[in-house]
Amino acid sequence: MSKPRLMFDHDSRHTLIYQYEPPINREEIEAAVDELAGTSVDAIMLTLGEGRTMLHDTKIGEQWGHNVSNWNHIVFRRAYQNSQKLISEGNDPLHIICDRAHEKGILVYPNLLAQQVSGERGQDVRCSDFFFDNTHLSIGAKGKLDPDHVAAKCHDYMHEEVRKERFELINEVLQNYPVDGLELQMNFYPYYFHPSEVKKGIPVMTEWIEKVYQTVKKNNPERELAIRIPHSIDACLSVGLDVKDWAEKGIVDVLIGQRLSGPSITDPTADFTSLVKAAEGTNCRVHATIQSHVDSDRLSLAPIEVVRAIACNYWSQGIDGLYLDHWYANWPYEAQFYEKLREVLHPDIMAPKDKYYHIPSLNHDWQRPVTEPSTPMQLPSTLDVDTPSDIHFNFTDDLPRWEKLGRLHEVILRIKVVGSNELDNISFEINGQILPDEHLRKISEIYRISTPRAVGGYGYWYIFRLPDKYWPNQGNNTLKITLNKRDELMDQQVEVRNVELETRYLRGKNHNRGYVDPDLGIFSGREVSIF
Questions:
Q1: What are 124-133's pLDDT values in tens digits?
Q2: Which of 15, 124, 369, 473 is the least crowded, having the fewest Cβ atoms under 10 Å away?
Q3: Is residue 428 part of a domain?
Q4: Are the C-beta atoms of 188 and 113 separated by less than 8 Å?
Q5: How many separate domains does the chain show?
Q6: What is the pLDDT of residues 483-528, one digit of tens each?
Q7: What CATH number has the domain bearing residue 415?
Q8: How far from 462 is each of 193, 298, 409, 415, 497, CA to CA, in Å?
């Protein structure tokens, strides 16, 4: 079996069983595969229900809605109607997808959420009786934990009953379906032990992972175990996952690193090198996860220019493949979606193409991650007078090379500072060099009646078109921002909210900018930037 380099997260719900009006038919289920056929996607990572109840014909686990008499959510009822209709007529959705994927040359790795939270009976119509009836198995049941902590309602893997329930679901799928592997999603509510027992839990979890691995390989040694985890070794260890030991023991085939799973936003700055180093000298591969949302004040979903920047940064770290998570938000899929899939595996093809690097920033929609360990955020960053704020970012483009070949069009740095007015004085340095005002365009957004997106806050955009003297380096860079003078009558906090770096290229020396070239007065709306 070939080893997949591009894995695609398909949660089996949002673009599938939620979308189609009952009674759903076989061809509509097959669309989950058909929409990806002919692309670079090697493997569909298909979520099994929503982790607690299932949408396939399970005899071991509990089917979605089996314990519900009256529904409080029309979409969740639709999922029940569609899944039960298919199962009752002998069209198990998981079998349909496996058969169709193999027909089209795509692998299928069912994905089980290793952790979920207990719901309230009568309210949570997706929850299983196992979760309702066994709250004593939760991490919070041991006490000495804030009941509002995200881990409190998670099941405690120190209990054999918890590990057994998850394992039996896995074993049934491996025995009864022609799958090519299994994914354990361990970065969704990634808390498995009471905080006081994390160290004690490490060998318990390793033993369980080894048992799962042996079951995956039992009837087909070519099948793979892929595990999605926090993005670094330290983050994994902090919740009881010794992934370096798993790789060295040979009990995992693919480690899938993921950062900002909780808010599910893109992050070009994510560092997977500790995972890559941990897998060196083993048979374990490392994939990096790319999410789909930017959620800045101008962008919701990531356009291709953002995806290129992220993918190139990740490939430069020595990863073996990519995992596309939550890309179903792009559905129904159109041309640019397929263009992303065509390019994303090829950093050499993406190298001389427009890219849009950014530092992820949280806002009122996406608060600081609470479901993910070790995820410090650089933005927003507060600015106090004479106290510089350092923003670090990685950059992959070889600007001197493409400039020499006549392919580089321009390099644009944008910084949004909110809470600041015209009386403030702010300076900017990149890698120790002060950026002069002669390269600056300053745009006031102190007040706008309407905005493209209701995030970001009021303030100023500082936009620099950078000559070569101030270009960022390949590799690590530091942007230093200093509030030198503050309006003494203002009490509002000044914050750096957005940092963006855009590189624009030409198709060839002295070529036009294609569909968009402002110097020729041709506009089609395809530009990422509005500046």
A1: 999 999 999 9
A2: 473
A3: yes
A4: yes
A5: 1
A6: 999 999 999 999 999 999 999 999 999 998 876 666 555 444 444 4
A7: 2.60.120
A8: 46, 15, 20, 5, 12
